[in-house]
Amino acid sequence: MNFIDELKLRAKREKRRIVLPETMDKRVLEAAEIALKEEIADIILIGNREKIINDNNFLEQATIIDPDHSELTDLYVDKLYELRKEKGMTKEEARRLLTEDYMYFSCMLVKDGKADGIVSGACHSSANTIRPALQIIKTKPNAKLVSAFFLMIVPNCEYGADGIFVFADAGLEQNPTPENLAAIANSSAESFKLLTQKEPIVAFLSHSTKGSAKHADVDKVVAAVKIAKETYPDIKADGELQLDAAIVPEVAKSKAPDSEVAGRANVLIFPDLDAGNIGYKLVQRLAKAEAYGPICQGIAQPVNDLSRGCSTEDIVGVIAITAVQAQNK
């Protein structure tokens, strides 16, 4: 059984209600059908029933909510207005968002306890997915920031956790400060442990290993490692490490022989979004890895993004991940 199948099995044991707002996308409807058939989650679809069903009667098994006709809409208009009126939102604007931008309606379902998580982003930008979630669902208590990671599954790979890695931040935080890098490392370690049920081993990546290069960019990573070790002492973390020193035992022996992380890392913390995003796409395309995400961390309830280049299978995988995250709530 592969890793995603294991996650699906965990999701099935205690099903959660996952909302898919992008019912205008064929891939999303295909993923909804698979998730229903495999009983991964109870699926909620937002949109016009006739357009969603469209000769696929199996989707009748989903809960379908049309904001134009739902009895919840008036209630959610009032609630969204109360949440955002200090930011200048009017009731008219609240109604427009709820009936035209289905991500807002989806977030209200989660806020109202009628859904447990959301998967979106197949045909919308990350900002369109994350902004409503932050406005309505808010951040997790004590979360320092919201960040995003990719769950990478590399075939025929002896590194990481048998080819399983978390790459962070590869989706949201453009140029994190040392404090933010440390917080991203902590969140990513927690996410890795939740999803894989294995020990996270965290490497802060750089173009330098243990002082082999001098630059302000290296200094930022060194500072992040220091903060992480002081603030999150329970995490097994080290840096700064070049990628090969982080994951290849033979290289680690020569470049960082005294590190308990070098050569064993399965959670890779990139110094900025450019490196993280380029890194995950290189591994996905050249190593034929499965890349699930961006998976968000730091939001009060599971809200996960998708790459606009995602496949139907990718969406199904993220539904399973979101359901497992929701079980942990």
Topology summary:
Layout: H1 3-13, E1 17-20, H2 26-37, E2 42-46, H3 49-53, E3 63-65, H4 72-84, H5 91-100, H6 102-111, E4 117-119, H7 126-136, E5 147-153, E6 164-168, H8 178-196, E7 201-205, H9 216-231, E8 236-241, H10 243-247, H11 249-255, E9 267-269, H12 273-286, E10 290-297, E11 303-304, H13 312-328
Parallel strand pairs: 1-2, 1-4, 2-3, 4-11, 6-9, 7-8, 7-9
Antiparallel strand pairs: 5-6, 5-10
N- and C-termini, Cα separation: 26 Å
Q: What is the CATH C level class of the largest domain, in words?
A: Alpha Beta
Question: What percentage of amino acids are in beta strands?
Answer: 15-25%
Number of domains: 2
What low-confidence regions span 5 or more consecutive residues with pLDDT below 50? none
H/E topology pattern: HEHEHEHHHEHEEHEHEHHEHEEH
Number of helices: 13
Category from helices, strands and their pairing: alpha/beta
Tell me the strand order in the biggest sheet: 8-7-9-6-5-10
CATH architecture of the largest domain: 3-Layer(aba) Sandwich
Mean of pLDDT: 94
Q: Nearest-angstrom radius of gyration?
A: 21 Å
Helix content: 40-55%
Q: Which of globular, elongated, flat, extended, rod-shaped describes the shape? A: globular
Q: Could you give a short description of this structure?
A:
This protein has helices at 3-13, 26-37, 49-53, 72-84, 91-100, 102-111, 126-136, 178-196, 216-231, 243-247, 249-255, 273-286, 312-328; strands at residues 17-20, 42-46, 63-65, 117-119, 147-153, 164-168, 201-205, 236-241, 267-269, 290-297, 303-304. With 329 residues, the protein is α/β, with parallel strands linked by helices.
